[in-house]
Specification:
The protein is built from 24 helices and no strands. It has helices at residues 5-10, 12-27, 29-44, 48-76, 78-98, 102-130, 133-148, 150-164, 169-172, 174-188, 202-225, 230-252, 266-296, 301-307, 309-318, 322-329, 331-349, 352-355, 358-385, 392-427, 437-442, 444-452, 457-495, 505-518.
């Protein structure tokens, strides 16, 4: 259905509703899945490295296709791109809910990433072409608020579903939402495109996806195969070589997917590095936190989901105030203060005494969210402010690509280091029966499964050993995550500007919206 210009204007708030519904579908995806990971371990027998791939398969494809998907929407029509993304996301979500092996789930998650990459940038593109002036700022604020709700809706909704249904329900719930969004979009979403859009950089898109896949494969598989294993070394070397080739290609092609010359601007590079390192720590810490709640503390999926909510509270309370703080104290001071709060919270995450306390752990997670709220909006504004106004779309895509890449690396690197430490601690325990030692060493979920097959005191001993090994590994990994955030604070202090440049209302709203949406 093609809307006239007058119809599009009259129905613009209905359009926003459809865009927000589309955004909800993908904004809750990873947060709802984290709560389901222990159930996937129990019901599918997923191993430690497979859990990382279940998260990262989606993220790699999503991040690798973001820029290309935005270009496709500009070239062939943004409404078509949104509809296609919703259909793909719904179909592959249904597929994911019915698989019977971790490998099939990893494949389905990767396919879901194609749909997600089409949906996310298209919602913001349609919105900015539907609204103008002050209405655009208001619409972007609503869009951002809905996006930020994913941190709350995902864990709580996932926990509620898992109380009554199997793990597949966290994927199946996407199907009716995608269907409804497609139907409503047919009537209420106008189409638009950029007639001056250049040709697609298919080589750059392919190189970016393969490079990320190779690097992450090597990092994730290294704990199982060994860092000196020929396959691990081979894929890591190939990944680095392709990364160099990608940079060379983007510098020399006439229509680059990512103009790497932007990174010659220290302000742009520092802001991008800050977001990448921050979400490296965020995704990696969340990946472990939900397992800690359920396996170590014995919480139900619903309670585990509820316990993650304080992070969202911190973000939603502090993020709207960040621009005011920047105006008073300057970009550099606000971002660094936020990063120091995040680092302090991560050091507290390493303490079982603090995190096992409902009140103490809750306050720490509020602190974590407050730090994120102070960090992401000003850092995103620095990305936007360092680019020409006409490159706002490029800034949006780069902002989310750095977030997704940092998140994928966070799960891969921190998850792999955690697994190495866990295996070392369990391996040194003499009381683990040899018949189940390999299974117990794989992950805490597999250790619990092994304990159930052994009656008496031996089974209880395995559970206690696995919990102690998890906590011991958690201490190391969260300390490393805090160190990464401190590195981001140093980069921000060294290279970010003291104050933000003057921006239009729309530019400020766009920067704030993207930062909240990323959370």
């Amino acid at each position: 259905m093609t809307l006239t210009a007058q119809d599009a204007y009259d129905r613009r708030w209905w359009t926003l509703g459809v865009l927000c519904m589309s955004l909800v579908v993908i904004s809750v995806d990873n947060t709802i899945l984290n709560v389901a990971l222990p159930s996937i371990v129990r019901e599918l027998g997923a191993q430690g490295s497979q859990l990382q791939w279940i998260i990262d398969a989606y993220t790699i494809v999503f991040a690798g296709l973001l820029l290309t998907a935005g270009s496709l929407g500009d070239r062939f029509g943004r409404k078509k791109a949104l509809t296609t993304g919703l259909v793909l996301f719904g179909v592959f979500s249904a597929l994911a809910s019915q698989v019977n092996s971790p490998t099939m789930l990893i494949v389905a998650r990767g396919l879901m990433g194609i749909g997600g990459a089409l949906i996310f940038p298209t919602t913001l593109s349609i919105l900015t072409n539907t609204f103008t002036g002050r209405e655009r700022a208001k619409a972007i604020g609503i869009w951002a608020g809905v996006s930020g709700l994913g941190i709350v809706i995902g864990p709580l909704g996932g926990g509620l579903l898992l109380e009554h249904f199997s793990w597949g329900s966290v994927f199946l719930v996407n199907v009716p939402l995608c269907t409804l969004a497609v139907v409503l979009g047919w009537f209420f979403v106008p189409d638009s495109r950029d007639p001056e859009e250049g040709r697609l950089d298919l080589v750059g898109a392919g190189l970016s996806i393969v490079t990320l896949a190779l690097l992450l494969y090597g990092i994730i598989e290294a704990p199982d195969l060994g860092w000196g294993n020929a396959r691990v070394v081979g894929v890591l070397v190939a990944g680095v070589a392709l990364l160099a080739l990608f940079i060379w290609w983007e510098r020399h092609t006439d229509h680059p997917m990512l103009d790497v010359r932007f990174f010659e601007n220290p302000r742009f590079s520092a802001a991008s590095a800050t977001i990448t390192l921050t979400y490296f720590a965020l995704f990696g810490s969340t990946f472990l936190l939900t397992q800690y709640f359920q396996f170590v503390l014995g919480y139900s999926p619903l309670k585990a989901g509820f316990m993650t909510a304080p992070v969202a509270v911190g973000i939603m309370v502090v993020a709207p105030q960040a621009p005011k703080f920047v105006e008073r104290f300057g970009t550099k001071r606000v971002v660094v203060a936020g990063l120091l709060l995040v680092a302090a919270a991560l050091f507290c995450y390493a303490s079982d005494t603090i995190m096992s306390s409902v009140i103490g752990g809750g306050l720490v997670r509020v602190l974590f969210g407050a730090g994120l709220g102070l960090t992401t909006a000003p850092a995103t504004e620095s990305i936007m402010g360092s680019l020409p106004p006409g490159k706002a779309g490029v800034g949006s895509a780069i902002n989310d690509t750095t977030r997704q890449t940092g998140g994928a690396l966070g799960v891969a690197v921190l998850g792999s280091l955690f697994l190495l430490r866990y295996q070392a601690l369990i391996g040194s325990a003499a009381s683990v029966p040899e018949g189940v030692r390999a299974q117990v060493q794989d992950s805490i979920g597999q250790a619990f499964a092994a304990a159930q097959s052994i009656s008496g005191a031996d089974g209880a001993t395995i559970v206690q050993l696995a919990r102690r090994a998890f906590i011991g590994s958690m201490r190391i990994v969260y300390a490393l995550a805090a160190a990464v955030v401190l590195l981001a604070a140093f980069v921000s202090w060294r290279y970010l500007p003291a104050t933000a440049p003057d921006l239009s209302d729309d530019d400020v709203a766009l920067a704030e919206a993207m930062s909240v949406g990323d959370a």
